[in-house]
Structure formats: structure tokens, C-alpha cells
């Protein structure tokens, strides 16, 4: 089983607008796959389809060979799909640690009677969860800011916190929606290292939307290009750079 | 930490010996203090719904009434003792909270407010019109007082200690619920439902839970009230009472349990203290709330007072400093 996620002829329509049109896409285990495309190409819509915020009008989405078309977002998280958002979405009035805790599966599935009546055992269980979450924060380099309110973090760190939150769900596939937006060059270099580390060291499959082409070329094992909701190319960085369809999508085609 | 413990024990001792002073002055203040207890339970319950889960519910008096009528009917017709009727009434109220919440949690904000408001009115109209069971506007007189080991509660002092115990239990239980993974998930649901769903939280589950817990404790308050006043009538569960409980939560500070108790104390004792200005007292109270909203919108004991980490200090010992 070397495909973790597979999209088969997936389309979604909003009224008359076909936002994603007959897209086939596979994420192989252990790779970093990037999705690029001009603005409005349907990249984020594709993410929303994978995470269950939208449901496809037609086509099939398979995760670990299981059809997940109809599953709700929280059910997909249980299966192992986590994401970050293009416009960071954090619980701004809560601390960094709380933001990660709340996405930990054992934390947000705590039982009512357990939390009212058990004392010693739950204290130990929570200590373990907290430790695990601090570990995830250490991976992205935020372990020294546990008690800071998430809303007061600088923009770049908010994005890192979103990644830590995704990790805390115990995901196997992490969807990053423009993780480098708003970061400076130094931060971007660090981010690339961290994403590579996640992929290699923690065996997390990563699917990435990004506009920074230099970063894409460096980080991706494969690249898929979307244009007007259709996939126009897929392949390694070198293949994509020379693909005539991609060049015409970004730079405009020749005039007939 | 020691200072906190000292303040805590001082408050505990004060609450324990309070009846000694108050009963010297007059019975009215004893009654006021007991009503503060009843409304503390109500506002803590509503705080779970509004403060933590962020569901703007306007019909809390309905659950209070359901608890009171359930306890009264159980004690009058089935001769059940108060100690069984209390949890039974709480469970019945909780069940109604669950049943109401099931269809309405799809609604948000103002729409939810309107539907819960309607629910409150429907429940009150049922109390008024279902004469066979509730005796309508005449109410149910003669609800028995609780008795313990053959000793029947008669004076206000006994009821004071009973409500004190109930408030403490409510505080401890609700405190454990909101300072847990459940509380964190409720807060996440309140802040951003889409986000909550994308990190594995099922928003509807936590909204339902909040309504059930809130209604459960309203049921406890209702059962106590029925037995304390020994008479239940629909007049006590009007729309205004729901608004009053809501004001307690907001005034004290949403997502803060001590705040809810403080809010209840202010809004129950305030009108009594202002009694000498007679017809202006509601006006003054309204003015106070408006000023409050302008200068201290987070309430007297707002969220900044909540523990910085929801897992409390216990789980964090020895961690990164």
C-alpha cells in the first residue's frame, strides 16, 4: 500500500462554477507533494475537499484505501488527516499549549465521568498528554512560549503553532496551506528544514500549497499544477519547469 | 499559594457562621442569601452553556421550572423523599436540556436565542395550562420540606446549610468539567466551530453536553427551591428570570465560575439593597449594567482570572519554567 491519499476524478461545483474539475491525484507514502497554481486555481478548495469541509459533487477520495467521501472533518482527523489554514486559525485567547492540547485526540475525547470523578489516574494521563504536546511544540521550536496567548505570537510563529497543532492530532497526512506566507527569508529556510524533518524523521506525509517557487523546488519530491480547477501537470521539479502547459498558465500562451 | 489558602478558609468560615449573624438581624436577609445560592447554581449552569460552549441560550428559567415541578410532583404524588427527588428532578431537567438542544444546536447566535426564548415561554405556558397536572396558575402548594434522620427542615438556617452544600457540590463538579479536555473542547467550539471540527472535535457533541449539564444543575436549583418555598407556581419561571440569570453570567464574567456566583450575589442582593429608593431601583440596576458593559465588558471576574492552563498546575509540575 504505497498510496496514502488518492483522488479519483474528483469534481466540486458551486452553483454553475466548477471549482475543481475531474482531478486525479495521489499522495505516495513518504513523499512531499506540492500543489501550485495561479490564484483561484482551486488549491484551497482541493484541501477543503480532502479534509471534509466540502464534499465532492462527483468522484472518489480514498484515504488508506478507504472511501472517505462522506466523512465529516472530525472523523477524517480521527483517521489521520490534519491541516493548517491559509489564514491562520488559532484560538487566539488561549495559550500556545492549550491550542495544542485541545487538538490532542486523548484530550478532546476525555469522558465526562472520567473528568469529574477520577483524580490520580487522570492526573497522570494528563501529564503524559501535556508532555507529548510540549514535545510537538519543541519540534517546531515553540516550547519556550507555552503560556503565551496564541493571538500575541508573531505571524510566522502562529503558522508554526498550526503545524504543531496538526502534529498533536496524531496525523499521518498533514496538509499545509501556504505555510510560508508572511515569513521572511530566514524563517522560510528554517521552515523548509522543519518540514523535511517531519517528513523523514516522523514519517508524516506532507501535502503542501505554496506560492514561493524557490521553496517549492527545493522541498518537493513531486509537484502538481492546478489551473482553473484542472490538473494540468504533475511530476518532479525539473519536469514541471519545462512543461509547456505550466509555462502558458503562468506566463500566458502564445497568441495564435 | 498560602495566601490563597488563607483567603479560601476565611471565606469558608465566614460562610459557615453567616447564619449566626444574619438570623439576628432579620429573616429577610437569610432569605436573600439563600436565593443567592439558588441563583449561583443557575448561573453556573448557564455559564457552561454561554461562557464555555458559547451558545446564547435565553430559556434557562424553563429548566429551573422543570426541575421545580418535577421535584414537587414526585414528592406530592409518589411520596418520594427530597433526597431522591432532587437528583431525579435534576436528571429530568437534564433530559429536557438534551432534548431541546438536539434540534436547536444547528442554529447560531441570535437565532438560537430566539428559539430558546420560545422554549422558555412554551414551558411556562404548559405550567399554566396543563391544569390536570400542574393545577395551572393556582400552583402546587404543600411541597414537603426535606428531612434528615427524622428531623425535618423548618427554619431558614437549615435551608441555608443545604443550599451551601449544593452550591459547593455544583462548583466542584462544574469546575472539574470545565477544567478538563471537555472544557477545552467547549472553548474551541465557542471560538471557531470550523477549526474545532478540523482538529478532531465534534462541535455538536460539546454543545449538547453543555446544554445537558446546564439544565441538570438548573434542575437541582429548581428542586431545592420547590422544597424551600414549599409552593410551586408558574410565576417564578418567567422570561425575566431567564434574562436575570443571563445578566448574572455576563456581569460576573462569562467562562468564570466565581464570577457567576458574584453576579448572582450582586443581582439578588442589589435590588434588595436598593429597596428604599423604591420605584427607581430597577432603573438604577439597569444603569449599573449598562455602565458595566461600557467600562468592564469582560465582567467583574472575567476570563483573565481563569487558570492560565486548563490542566491546572498539577499536570505541569517540573515542566519547562
Output the CATH homologous superfamily of the domain at 1-73 and 206-256 in chain A: P-loop containing nucleotide triphosphate hydrolases
- CATH topology name of chain B: ABC transporter involved in vitamin B12 uptake, BtuC
Strand order of the largest sheet of chain A: 6-7-8-3-9-10
- Give a count of the beta strands of chain B, DSSP E runs of length 2 or more: 4
N-to-C series of helices and strands of chain B? HHHHHHEEEHHHHEHHH
What does this structure look like?
Chain A has 256 residues and is of the alpha/beta class. Chain A has a domain of 124 residues: P-loop containing nucleotide triphosphate hydrolases (Rossmann fold). Chain A is built from 11 helices and 10 strands. In chain A, the strands form 2 sheets. Chain A has a 6-stranded mixed β-sheet with strand order 6-7-8-3-9-10, with helices on both faces. A 4-stranded antiparallel β-sheet of chain A has the order 2-1-4-5, with helices on one face. In chain A, α6 crosses α7. The longest helix of chain A is centred in the middle third of the chain and has 21 residues. The radius of gyration of chain A is 19 Å and the shape is globular. The N and C termini of chain A lie far apart (46 Å). Chain B is mainly alpha-helical and 321 residues long. Chain B has one domain: ABC transporter involved in vitamin B12 uptake, BtuC, CATH 1.10.3470. Chain B has 13 helices and 4 strands. A two-stranded antiparallel ribbon of chain B has the order 1-4. Chain B has a two-stranded antiparallel sheet with strand order 2-3. In chain B, α2 crosses α11. The radius of gyration of chain B is 20 Å and the shape is globular. The interface between A and B is large, with 47 and 33 residues.
Quick structural gist:
The complex is a heterodimer of chains A (256) and B (321). By secondary structure, chain A is an alpha/beta fold.
Supply database-style keywords:
heterodimer, A: 256 residues, alpha/beta, Rossmann fold, six-stranded mixed sheet, four-stranded antiparallel sheet, 10 strands, 24% strand, globular, B: 321 residues, mainly alpha, ABC transporter involved in vitamin B12 uptake, BtuC, two-stranded antiparallel sheet, two-stranded antiparallel ribbon, 4 strands, disordered C terminus
